[in-house]
Structures are given as structure tokens and as C-alpha cells.
Amino acid sequence: MNKILTCYLPDVNSFNGRFKWLWKEKPTLRKKKEAFLETLRTYFKQQQEALHKVFPKKRMEMLDYVIYNLVATGIQAIQSKTLMQKFDVSQSTVSRFVKSLKETPFMLVARYIKEDATGAHPDSYVFILKSHTNFNQICEEIFLHTIQQVFKRFNKKK
Asked: How high does pLDDT run on average in the chain?
């Protein structure tokens, strides 16, 4: 059985709302994004894979968009249909993109719960950057867990 980390969308929005001032720091965000992409390139090179093979053109565009948003606050919630419309791709392309992100050691991918608490949205994603300075705070405030509990749940080491 797959373990799915879930959270509430209003919690993510509230958390990100506290950091609106970061969006004014566009040059800093671009530098952080480029630094993270270089980390990804190095990781894939060590795995004897090429970044552009794992993330072909459209998926690379999605990666660029998601990373830019993640380097600001460390967490981003987005629906697959938003990615589909923004990048003119199919649902299967978005699914492959998310799967590729999950397979890296740098991200957690969660789902957000519907407002009526009937379960996780099947086509919604919450991306969390493990290396972000807000990661501890995200785990505690958004997921109501300590980092150890989050990693124990996914049987992964930090």
C-alpha cells in the first residue's frame, strides 16, 4: 500500500502567505533555482543519467516552474489541470513528471485533502523541497509531524 502524505490547502496557502515579500526578490529566487537545478544535474550525472532524459522538454519546463516556486517558501500546492493548461500537456505527462520528481531524493510529494474531508484530491499535488530552510517548519505546521515522523512514514532517511 502506498503511503500518501496529506495536508489541507488552506494551511499551505496560509503558510505561503507569510512569505509574500520573498516574491519581490526575483534575482535571488532565480539564483536559488539555478543552484538547485545544478544540484539536480549533478545528482543525475552521478546516477549516470541525463537531466534532459528524465525531464524532457515539457517536463523540464514544468520542473523550472515548480522549482522557482519551491525555492521561495519550500512548499507549493498545484492541481494537475493547472500544469496541463499552463504547459499544454496531457495528464499522463503530468503524472510522469510527478513520478520523476518523487524518485529524486530532494522532494516529497503529498496530496491536499478536499475541504469536505472526504479524502485526498486525486489530481492535486503538494511539492515540498527537503533542503529548504523552512522544511522543519513545514513538517510541523502543515503536516503536524516532526521531520522524523515524516521520514519514518516514508521509510526514507533525510
From this structure: 83
